[in-house]
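Lab channel / #folding
Pinned by the channel admin:
"Please post every new chain as: sequence first, then the C-alpha cells as a reply. Keep commentary short and put observations after the output so the thread stays searchable."

First post following the new format, from NK:
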Amino acid sequence: MFTGIVTDIGSVTAVEARGDTRVVIATAYDTATIDLGASIACSGVCLTVVEKGPDWFAVDVSAETIGRTADQWTSGRRLNLERAMKLGDELGGHIVTGHVDGVGTVVSVAEEGGSHRVFVTVPSDLAPFMATKGSVTVDGVSLTVNSVEDGSDGTVIGLNIIPHTAAVTTLGGIAEGQRVNIEIDVLARYLQRMEHYRGR
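Reply from TO:
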C-alpha cells in the first residue's frame, strides 16, 4: 500500500529480457534498509525488489505489466519512486495500491501562475471514476482532479502541478503527447461495485 507521495526519482540503468524483463533502477534510497521481496512503486507500478546494490535495486517486470503501463521500461527513463507504507506512517496523499488501471495521454500543458495546468485524456472505462475534487494517481503521484470534461473524443481531466510537486517528481517535465499511468481512487472503485449490486 502506498500514498502517492513520491520520495525519490530513480532512473533506469539497465533493461534485460530474461523471461520477464529485469529492470535495474538507480536510487538515492539507503538500499541497506530495503529487504529483498520489498515492494516499491515505480511511477505508480508496485514491483518487488529481487536484487540490490549500494545505490540500485532490480525488479522483474512481466509482459502483462509492460502491456498495461506507459512507456517507462527503457534505459535512462526517470521514475517516481515510493516505498511501501509502514503502520503509523502519515497518509499524506490518498490510498494507492500500485495497480495501474489504465494509460492516459497528456493533451496539453500550460503555465498558470507558478504552477502547470495539465489536461489528460483517460480511457473510457475509467471515466466513471473521475470526479472533480476527487483523487487520482498519475505516474505514482497523488493529485486532485480539478476538472472533468466528457466529450465525444473521451474524458479529459484537468490537474494542477504545483512547483513543489514539479521539483520532486517527474511531472516537472511532463509534455504533450506523453503517456502516463493512471490509478483510480480505490474508494471510487468500491463505491461503483456497491452501486452495481444495489441496482440488481
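NK: Residues 102-198 form a domain with the Elongation Factor Tu (Ef-tu); domain 3 fold (CATH 2.40.30.20).
TO: also worth noting, The chain has three helices and twelve strands.
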